[in-house]
Amino acid sequence: MKPIITARNLGKEYLLPQDDYRGGYGTLRELITSLPTRLFTSAKSEKKTFWALRDLNFDIYPGDRVGLIGRNGAGKSTLLKILSRITEPTSGTVTLYGKVGSLLEVGAGFHPELSGRENVFLNGAILGMPRSAIKKRFARLVSLILQKLKNLLICRSSIIRLECI
């Protein structure tokens, strides 16, 4: 079976400026007093490199379920941005077969001022689905959402009963 996502030697490097006064987060006084030195020295500020991803290799096949788990700064969002083509990798290649939609933030695509129906169409559009395909699958999508909501309410009700006992 052919993979739908392939990453080979994937890497993303960021250049971080190194300033003399507290890494760029100094006070206004420190900025003003260091200004003459910074203006009249020919030395360029050194850049520190940070690798968010380095030498990453993987294949994802149709039907695979993948979870990205890691601490802050581990590169999870960077990988998702590269896979959704928001940013380019510094090194390596990514090969994608099919459509890729990106919801990088929790709650992305759910607008509180829109109805449930409008939110379904919004999410379908974000994922690149044509309006006709969303209409065709609307009833099934709504039934899935309602089933998930029902399961959540049953679970929440059980938790409330356990806390009251």
Output the structural class.
alpha+beta
Shape: extended
List low-confidence stretches.
Answer: 159-165
What does the radius of gyration come to?
Answer: 24 Å
Q: Give the neighbour order of strands across the main sheet.
A: 2-1-3
What order do the SSEs take from the amino end to the carboxyl end, as H and E? EHEHEHH
Describe the fold and architecture.
Strands 2-1-3 form a 3-stranded antiparallel beta sheet, with helices on one face. It has 4 helices and 3 strands. Helix 3 packs across helix 4. 40% of the residues lie in helices and 20% in strands. It has helices at 28-40, 76-83, 116-126, 131-164, and strands at residues 5-17, 47-60, 91-96. It has 165 residues and is of the alpha+beta class. The termini are far apart. The longest helix is centred in the last third of the chain and has 34 residues, at 131-164. The chain is extended and about 70 Å long.
What's this model, at a glance?
The chain is α+β, with helices and mostly antiparallel strands and 165 residues long.
How do the helices and strands line up, and which of them pair or pack?
Layout lengths: L4 E13 L10 H13 L6 E14 L15 H8 L7 E6 L19 H11 L4 H34 L1
Antiparallel strand pairs: 1-2, 1-3
Helix pairs in contact: 3-4
